[in-house]
User: Fold this.
Amino acid sequence: MKTFSVEDIARGGIIAALYVVLTYIFAPISFGLIQVRIAEMLTILPLFTPAAVPGLFIGCFLGNILGGAIVIDVVCGSIATLIGAVGGYLLRRNRWLVPIPAIIANMVIVPLVLRYGYGIDMPLLPMALYVGIGEVLSCFVLGELLATLLYRYPKLFQ
Assistant:
């Protein structure tokens, strides 16, 4: 099993901090039934470094706390991001598949949190579609734009 270097820990911390800042800055669109969490574009980063996995989990956890989410949202939302990050890391050999686990994990978990945590009385399927649209915009569209940019600077992850 590979241990994390000091550089990996620093990268994970930077990723966590970026996730928190993006969630906080874009808080009006980061929470609720219809959301496009801009910070979720960072779920593309397991393509470049395994340090992104804990960084994304910690960043989501802290971002949810600072965003005023309820406990079930803090825990389950962070787990959804963790599942997406791990899945993305496992699929990293195909750049175009990396965003898929984050999209699916959030489409399954977030509607349940909205229904049973926040009491939104709406069928789960439409909620999953709303969340999915936001996740596709953030994880796939913005994430792939970020990946394209990062491929131009390969030394960032060496």
